[in-house]
Amino acid sequence: MLLIDNDRSGDIVISQFTDEKLNNIIIESTANDVFTLFIDVETTGLSYDNDKIIQLACRPVLFDKTTGQITRLAGSRTFYNDPGIEISSEITTLTGVSNAQVKDQCVDWEWLAKIISKVDFVVAHNVRFDRHFVKKHMIDVDIIMPDTIWACSMAQVNWRSTCTAGRSLETLTTFHGFYYAAHDATADINALIYLLAKSGRASELFETAAQSEYRVFAVKIPYGNNDELKSRSYKWDPDVKMWWCGFNNELDADTESKWMQERFEIEPQIFEVKPCHLFD
After folding, report:
1. How far apart are CA 138 and CA 144, in angstroms?
2. DSSP assignment of 61-76, as one string?
3. 67, 89, 179, 181: least CB-packed within 10 angstroms?
4. Alpha-carbon gap, residue 133 to 188, rounded angstroms
């Protein structure tokens, strides 16, 4: 029995993930494939401004667009990257990446950009984190990151329909019956690939990631309404200094805009954000 089963009366069995599990679920291609590149990074810390990538793993995978099952699994490639600063003992303990491993090493950013330009989706479990660091490092070496759509397996899959405990990769894999050596970039991408195929949620991810988002901005909203906005899932944008909320379709955005007009007597603005810019 798995933790996601409706009948939770039996024993719970959680097994260790192995590469063999991935190889055993590959199906024959029906020429309806989605070409993806899975990416995960380990860094010296969480600061977008000050921290650097120390390990990057990537793996091209073909999925059947309809079933979400794997049709082809290419080999993974793992890079180490010298951050130019000392890796703390805490980060080494967490990731297993040491100063000796990264010394004088670097990611082949030109090669990575070429691969990204060829796929339909780049998949990461926390796109806002991984994409930011990848883009920042490419900018540092004067490489323009292609406008390929990034698909976030944490934010763009409705995991709460089966797992209410959380959306971290470790939590989701446990709820789907397996565990793995987390916080190693290569192990992370392999576990994520298996999770999406085993759960049958890959097609949902690709469908959601390919949609525009319609963002309602609360222009000139009266002061003192922050709590009400947060309760409706609004977020604060420090760049434009406005609250906004995103919707998957224009009709829902229009409905929200009308509610804002009636509730606060303001004129909200709706902006369409294309899939390739959702995580800018």
Report:
1. 7
2. EEEETTT--EEEEPPP
3. 89
4. 17
Where does a domain end: 191, 209, 227? Answer: 209
CB atoms within 10 A of CB 177: 18
| Whether residue 84 is found in the same domain as residue 147 | yes
Q: Domain for residue 1, yes or no?
A: no
Q: H or E element: which one contains 139?
A: helix 127-140
User: Do both 205 and 243 map to the same domain?
Assistant: no
- Does 241 share its domain with 103? no
Q: What is the dihedral of CA 110, 116, 118, 120, to 10 degrees?
A: 180
Instruction: Summarize pLDDT for 82-133 with one digit per residue, the tens.
Output: 999 999 999 999 999 999 999 999 999 999 999 999 999 999 999 999 999 9
Q: Which residues, including other chains, have CB under 8 Å from residue 92's CB and lie 6 or more apart? A: 98, 99
pTM, full prediction: 0.91
Residue 226 in tokens = 């922050």
Domain boundary among 169, 190, 209: 209
- Containing structural domain, residue 273: 213-277
Could you tell me how far CA 139 lies from the centroid of its own chain?
21
Instruction: For residue 9, tell me if it sits in a domain.
Output: no
The 8-class DSSP code of residue 169 comes to: H
Vertex 63: Cα angle to 153 and 20 (nearest 5): 90
pLDDT band at 9 (very low <50, low <70, confident <90, very high): low
Classify residue 2: in a domain, yes or no. no
Residues listed for the chain: 280
pLDDT in tens, 260-276: 999 999 999 999 999 99
Tokens of 278: 């959702």
